[in-house]
Structure formats: C-alpha cells, structure tokens
Specification:
- The complex is a heterodimer of chains A (90) and B (250).
- By secondary structure, chain A is mainly β.
- Chain A has one domain (7-85).
- Chain A has one helix and eight strands; from the N terminus they run E-H-E-E-E-E-E-E-E.
- The longest helix of chain A has 7 residues, at 14-20.
- The radius of gyration of chain B is 18 Å and the shape is globular.
- Chain B has five helices and eleven strands, in the order E-E-E-E-E-H-E-E-H-E-H-E-H-E-H-E.
- Chain B has helices at 86-92, 128-141, 162-168, 198-204, 220-232; strands spanning 13-24, 27-33, 45-51, 57-63, 73-78, 98-105, 119-124, 147-153, 176-181, 213-218, 240-244.
- The model of chain B has no long low-confidence stretch (mean pLDDT 93).
- Chain B has a six-stranded antiparallel beta sheet. A five-stranded parallel beta sheet of chain B has the order 9-8-7-10-11, sandwiched between helices.
- The chains are: A mainly beta (90), B alpha/beta (250).
- Chain A binds chain B through residues 1-12, 14-15, 18-19, 22-24, 26-27, 40-43, 88-90, and chain B through 2-10, 45, 47, 60-63, 77-78, 80, 83, 86, 102-103, 105-109, 126-127, 129-130, 217, 220, 241-249.
Chain lengths: 90, 250
C-alpha cells in the first residue's frame, strides 16, 4: 500500500482507529445501518479528501462512519453502523 | 473470564534510516532501525509523519516490505511528484536521518506462512510491497505453501524488486512469479503485455476447487477489477482480501 489520495480502503485508517480504540480494528466487522451487509473494516471504502475520513459501505455507499480530528479533539460519527463487532484477541 | 488483550494507544516512534535501496527510477526502499520495534506480520503497514519547520505535519501510510523475521523495518516508496511526503522519502532523505513513524498497523491484509491454503498474490505497481513482505516471510519461514504472484507493471524498468523476484522464483518450492507489462515491453519479451483480464486470470489463478485465498494490492481500479474477475471465476468473495491506495501509484 502507498496511500495517495481520494478513495482508499479501511486499511488506510488502521492507524487513526488505533488512536481511538485499544484494539486492532481493520479486522473488526461493521454491519451497515443502511443495507445490513457486513464487511471487515479493512474492506470498506474510505475517502480521505474530506476534512477527516469518511467511511462508506462498499455495497450501498451509505456513510458508515465519519472521523474528524482537530484542535485536540476527535469527532466520531457512527450513526451509519448498526453494529461494530471485534475480537478480544488482537 | 479472560480479559481482552489491550494494545494501548499507538505511539509515534523515531527510527533511523540505515540504508537506501533504489528499486526503479521512481521507487526506493528505506531500511529503518526502530528501537523497541514490537515485530510485525506480513502485510501490515506503518504511518510515517513529517513535520515542517513551521509545524505543519503531513502523514501517509506505507506497507512494510521486510519479512517479520527481519528485525529491521523496510518500506518501499514510489515518488509521486505532486505528493507531500513521497518526494522527501525518495530523493531527499539520507542515511542517518531520523523519521517519525508508528506501527505496525492492520490485521486484515495479513498472510501467515503457516496457512496451508494455496495463495494468489496480485499486485499493481507499488502494490507489490506488502506482497513482497509475504514472499520474504514465506522464504524466511521455509514454507512450501503453493504461492503465485501476478505482477502488473508499466514497463520492464518499472518492475519493483525485479532481481529479487527472479531469485525468489527459482529453485525448489519456489513461488511462481508471473509478470505483465502494460505499456512497453523489452525486445523479445515473452510474458503478458496487457492489463489483467479474464483470460489471464483463467491461466494464472489457482482453480476454485482448491479453495485458495487471494491478496490483491494496487491502485483502486486495478484492485476492484481483479477482485471482480476472481469472483467471476468462481472465487468466494471471502477468499479475497484487498488493499487499495487511490487513483495513482500504479
């Protein structure tokens, strides 16, 4: 991987998610609140050109997650995810 | 009840560049000595952060190219002329320079040599980097897992790790390395000369009856196309892992 621009995937926010969660999150599974499909975070679509990261469902394009960081704070919008499931083991 | 294994907050570390290896005219590898490196898995990446004198910071993700068995952390970077980070890492950085990085990151696009399933690696351009970590891991672990690499590059000169791949592809239990050169080919080239298509997948990919797994890394359109071709060839989408890095870079 060499991250460049625009549409990438959930692997590219593995580091950002590790700022927020204590676990490795690219293997976590998201259930889309829009279409109900389940995808590993590493598999979802990520757009890095917004102010922050916009994470979309690869099946229906619904926004799963928005992560914005600035002025020493995080804003984490998870309304597009019905369930985020991940292992106790890292 | 067993408690979850908490990793704690991922911290930035400072590593020292100990070697620079030109791979192609636009691509170089950086070997970085990171004190207290916790070790990594083949396919994981690091985040690299540069800070300008005025405090402006730019950050990018780069796959780790070195095997887990190698104590050094090596990344391979393609110089993107309009990039903020890669023109520094390819061209300006010198042996002895210090670089800020954090990792290892990721667990989805990871291959373990102990996994007995036949593996198909498909790379476009610098997408070969995490797959090279997997091939180096396979060699270091002495694994005989059937592995094929289908590697799409623009030209012969653009083939990253060309000599090492030639060496890796020779000998007993060697992985099969299959190149396609999409823009120009040297005289007498006998390999593929086109973008990855259904006929090529049909000739190269492990048959679905073997229940193989596939790892695909490269520019987004190439990765999505290759993944769709594998599904059309009967692969279960759950067998396919992808890593996409945007519109450029191939």
């Amino acid at each position: 991987m060499q991250q460049s621009d625009l549409k990438v995937d959930g692997n590219a926010i593995g580091g950002l998610l590790r700022e927020i969660f204590t676990m490795e999150m690219t293997t976590a599974e998201t259930t889309c609140a829009g279409c109900g499909k389940v995808h590993a975070v590493g598999r979802v679509d990520v757009y890095m050109n917004a102010p922050g990261a916009v994470v979309r469902c690869p099946a229906c394009d619904n926004v799963l997650m928005r992560i914005v960081q600035g002025r020493g704070r995080y804003w984490l919008d998870l309304t597009g995810i019905r369930c985020l499931e991940f292992s106790e083991q890292t | 009840m067993a408690r979850a294994a908490l990793l704690g907050r991922l911290a930035w570390q400072v590593g020292e560049v100990t070697d620079l290896v030109p791979e192609t005219p636009k691509v170089s590898s950086l070997v970085i000595d990171v004190p207290h490196w916790p070790g990594h898995l083949a396919g994981q990446h690091v985040d690299v952060r540069l800070t300008a004198e005025d405090g402006y910071q730019a950050q990018r993700s780069y796959s780790i190219a070195s095997a887990p068995e190698d104590p050094r952390v090596s990344i391979t970077v393609e110089r993107l002329d309009d990039g903020e980070v890669s023109p520094y890492l390819v061209g300006e950085v010198k042996v002895g320079d210090r670089i800020e990085l954090r990792g290892p990151i990721g667990g989805y696009f990871v291959w373990r040599a102990a996994d007995p399933r036949p593996a198909l690696f498909i790379a476009g351009g610098s997408g070969v980097v995490p797959l090279m970590a997997m091939l180096r891991h396979r060699r270091a672990a002495g694994a005989a897992t059937p592995v094929k690499l289908l590697f799409s590059s623009r030209s012969y000169e653009d083939v990253i790790y060309r000599e090492e791949l030639d060496q890796l592809g020779a000998g007993d239990h060697a992985p099969a390395v299959i190149h396609t050169l999409t823009r120009s080919q040297p005289a007498g080239w006998r390999g593929y000369k086109r973008r990855i298509d259904a006929a090529m997948i049909d000739e190269v990919a492990w048959p679905k009856q073997q229940q193989p797994q596939a790892f695909i890394c490269g520019p987004t359109p190439m990765v999505e196309s290759a993944a769709n071709l594998l599904v059309a060839a009967g692969y279960d989408p759950a067998w396919i892992k992808t890593e996409r890095f945007g519109a450029t870079g191939g």
